[in-house]
Every structure is written in structure tokens, then in C-alpha cells.
Design goal:
Length: 245
């Protein structure tokens, strides 16, 4: 088992990081990062680099007004893909803007990211989001290799405490991450109106799509949907009900 190490970002913030090589190491690895007790856990999946500026601006209030405050109130840990793009950037910025203290854990495949201070950025790699508090670095060289690890990290963090996955926007990798959550028997809240895969899965829940993968996930009974137009109170109420069980 490798020891934790510090990452220092250009804005002066630091994060604790640790590399793991096998899923059997996760319990000890998370203890070594300071996670000794189970916490309610929120898994965030969704759009990354393909979320345009207009959608980022439209989605930002959801993170600032709902997700970050709710995680703080419930003492939840938040787990996502950790890179400085899309919903992960929005989560990091929301945590900073609201002055929240909840753990924000990025799970990243080692060869897809560039760590701060690394001498060279390989083609196709992405920077880490600088407001995350922890990173779990897992094996992998392709985008999506981190997907099963995100679900595993969340399961270890939550243990017998409640957990929920929230899908905002997203594409093919987000669909794989929803599938991983369903395999882990984790409820997935699909934010309808946030675009792309979230809207496809919301349509499947209404019986309005021919997408076979979306229909199969909708049939699992673990997906719930809420529309962004219902307001922050309704979104917060649904998530709080799930995480407070």
C-alpha cells in the first residue's frame, strides 16, 4: 500500500492523494486518507468537457444552491471524477463559494490526468479540479476506466450509511457510471432538463425513448427523476429524503 501524499495547486490549495492498485486496498486506503467512519455519500456523475459555457452557467445555481449546501448540512462525502471540467468543476467551485467543509473526493484514472507540479502534460490528459480535498488515483489509461472505481469508493465510504448518485447532463461515460451505481444497488437521481444523457434517462422513465440501455436502467427501479424547473427546494427535499434514511 502506497502512502498518501500532498498535491499543491497553483491557487495555493492542497489536497491529499493516494494511489491504489486493487479494489481490495480501498478500505485501508480511505482510512489512510482520514476516512475512519462511514458517512452519507453523494456520487456526482455527468457532463465533462462537452458541457458548453451556456449550460455551465445554467447549471451552476443547482450546485451552489442545492448540492453543496445539502452535502454540508448532512455531513456527506461527495465523490466524483475529479477533473477540472463540467460538473466536477461546478462542484468544486460551489464548495469554495459556499465555504463548505464536506470532503470532496475525486477518483481519477492515473494516465488520464496531469497532477499539479508534474513536469509534462501528456496529450489527452486533463488537470485536476483544485477545490477537491482528496484524490484516489486508480489504474487506467482511458477515459471511463475510473467509472467502476467511483462506485466502489462510494460504497466503501458509505458502508451501511445511505448513498445516492446524482446525474447531471452527461454522455456515454456518465451512462456507464449510472450502470455502476445500479449494480451497487444505489439510487440514482436523474436531473431532467440538465441535458443529454440525463434527459434521455428521464425520457426512459416516462416510457418515451427507444434507447435500449436507457430502458434497461429505467426498469431497474433504482432511478428517480426530478426536473430542474421544480426548484431548489424540491431537489433538496428528494436528496435529503434519500440521504437521511
Amino acid at each position: 500500500m502506497e502512502k498518501p501524499f500532498k498535491l499543491t495547486f497553483s491557487n495555493g490549495l492542497t489536497a491529499s492523494a493516494l494511489r491504489v492498485h486493487h479494489s481490495t486496498e480501498l478500505f485501508v486506503a480511505l482510512c489512510n486518507l482520514g476516512f475512519y467512519h462511514p458517512n452519507p455519500t453523494l456520487v456526482l456523475v455527468g457532463g465533462t468537457g462537452q458541457v458548453g459555457n451556456a449550460d455551465m452557467a445554467r447549471l451552476r445555481p443547482f450546485f451552489i444552491e442545492v448540492l453543496a449546501p445539502l452535502a454540508e448540512i448532512l455531513g456527506a462525502s461527495v465523490v466524483d471524477g475529479g477533473t477540472d471540467s463540467g460538473v466536477m468543476r461546478l462542484m468544486g467551485e460551489a464548495r469554495a463559494k459556499t465555504g463548505a467543509t464536506f470532503p470532496l473526493i475525486g477518483v481519477v484514472a492515473e494516465e488520464t490526468v496531469i497532477c499539479p507540479g508534474a513536469p509534462h502534460a501528456c496529450p489527452g490528459t486533463a488537470p485536476l479540479e483544485p477545490h477537491h480535498t482528496h484524490f484516489v488515483i486508480v489504474p487506467g489509461c482511458d477515459w471511463g476506466d475510473e467509472s467502476p472505481w467511483i462506485a466502489r469508493v462510494a460504497s466503501v465510504l458509505a458502508n451501511r450509511r445511505p448513498s445516492v448518485t446524482v446525474l447531471v447532463n452527461g454522455g456515454e461515460i456518465a451512462l456507464a457510471e449510472v450502470s455502476q451505481s445500479v449494480k451497487a444497488c444505489r439510487t440514482v437521481v436523474v436531473v431532467s432538463g440538465s441535458g443529454r444523457m440525463a434527459d434521455t434517462l428521464a425520457a426512459a422513465l416516462r416510457g418515451e425513448t427507444a434507447d435500449g440501455r436507457a430502458k434497461a436502467l429505467a426498469a431497474s427501479g433504482l432511478l428517480r427523476t426530478i426536473d430542474m424547473t421544480e426548484g431548489s427546494d424540491a431537489l433538496a427535499k428528494m436528496l435529503e429524503e434519500i440521504l437521511s434514511v
